[in-house]
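User: Okay, second chain of the day. Same drill as before: sequence in, structure tokens out.
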Amino acid sequence: MKNALWSIGKSDLINSIFVAIFAGVLVVLAGVFQQPGFNVFEADWNAIIKSLINVSLISFVASLSKAFSSDRNDHFLGHL
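Assistant: Same drill. Structure tokens below.
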């Protein structure tokens, strides 16, 4: 069940986690596969993991912000 405006429920939190994981993996995979001659053993895994964490955190916060500021009918800021 969707929550009222200015509240976050369990389903909103679970949805935000899924969005964060999906977005992070998708962006990192796209970046890895666009590099010509990608080598698993010579890759900069620290940069790849940092990118994954950054994209996942930003996606998580954005999804929670949208859920927090939407009403039961998914209208941003109510009837705005």
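The helical segments are 10-33, 45-68.

User: Thanks, on to the next one.
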